[in-house]
Amino acid sequence: MAPPRSCQLAALLVICACTVAPLAPAAAASVPITTCRSFCGNIMVDYPFALHPGCGHAGLRDLLFCINGALMLHLPSGSYRVLDVDYAYRGLTLHDPAMSDCRALDRTPGGRGNGFVLEPWREPYLSPDPDNVFLLLGCRATSPLFQGFPDRHLPCRNVSGMGCGDFLACPAWDDYYAGGRRPPGDDAAYGDAVGTGAPPECCAVPWAAIRAVNVSRLECEGYSSAYSLAPVRAAGGAAGWAYGIRASWSLPESNRGFCGACRATGGACGHDMESHADLCLCGDWNSTSNCDSSADAAPSGAAARSPDAVAAVRWAVLASGCLPVHFWCRIDITVVARLEIKLVVDCGFPF
Q: Model confidence over 153-207: pLDDT tens digits?
């Protein structure tokens, strides 16, 4: 039996309702491109970094946060104030407030300061510079630093002309030993190789030697860090060093040229939040290459459901006068490409 004329009208109104009902945005295109480049205080945050999910490179995601106008970097070892981002030389300058320097020592038996520890998956993308020295202070003889190197302490050495010999001459040590502590001897920088075999008061190491500066796990009382941006030795010894952590970032070879091509076509450089693959954010759609190539449109995932469209269908049926009829309806809307939308309406009436 043919359906009542009123329900035929309902079917026609369904098509009209779905045409005018607003579509739900696809999940993959939910990042406004204007938010990817931003400022925190006076520091610009740009690719490969970002403050918003989906922007920047996936290897540096969930790393920078703007807190009360201060740009902070978060790692498993703690939080660091970002003092500078050098995009030309791919460098970050970080500050740890619990770190010792030439003017003041910050040491406790349980360890003071964050050190520097990265997640294993992030290590290919971020690491301290080779010219950055970590000075570990007051480490116990049982520290992993000294195991396997009896009476030699091979990990301790100068890095880019910076070492414990100069650091132990800082004024901060005069204040530290003013409280009755025993001043360091001539071998304090490298340990007492003869006699007691005591561990060094200070041990300077490069990042590559230990790959993780965990102050408490290394059984040290504190640490300092300094970096060199020039090949010449700093005047004034350790008092003239630049204190802080200088880290550099690198991106895989497969990423070379991707962001430049994306920006040249009006896009913003980002990544897929599930697969972590590179994405060019093009406003209301995403591309795996650039915004001029709709053939490379990124899939939007599962088809989006539009609650507004379903509500419009129900009102269409009510307006037709087909009130006694129970009905069901499913609407699937998928963004296929930049300007193409696939709409599937599947409705049923139990006549």
A: 467 889 999 999 999 999 999 988 876 565 555 555 555 443 456 788 999 999 9
> What's the domain range around 331?
5-24+307-348
Q: Tell whether 196 is covered by a domain.
A: yes
Report if residue 74 sits inside a domain.
Answer: no
Please give the model's pTM, rounded to 2 decimal places: 0.72
Round the CA-based radius of gyration of the chain to a whole number and report it: 31
3-state secondary structure of 176: helix
| Domain stops at, among 227, 250, 273 | 250
- The runs of H, that is alpha helices, within the chain are 5-20, 164-167, 171-177, 207-210, 258-264, 307-320
Termini Cα distance of the chain: 8
**Number of domains forming the structure of the chain:** 2
The reply to whether omega before 48 is within 30° of 0 (cis) is yes
Residues in the chain: 351
Question: Are residues 234 and 326 both part of a single domain?
Answer: no
How is residue 331 written in tokens?
């609407």
The DSSP line for 41-110 is TTEEE-TT--SSTTBS-GGGTT-EEEETTEEEEEETTEEEEEEEEETTTTEEEEE-TT-B-SS-----TT
User: Does 279 map to a domain?
Assistant: no
When mean pLDDT is compared across 88-97, 106-115, 281-290, the lowest value belongs to: 106-115
Locus of tokens 């918003």: 52
Same domain, 239 and 108: yes
CA 157/CA 182 separation, integer angstroms: 23
| 203 three-class SS | strand
191 lies in the same domain as 328:
no
**Residue 181 belongs to a domain:** yes
Beta-carbon contacts of residue 26 (< 8 Å; ≥ 6 apart): 285, 300, 301, 304, 334, 335
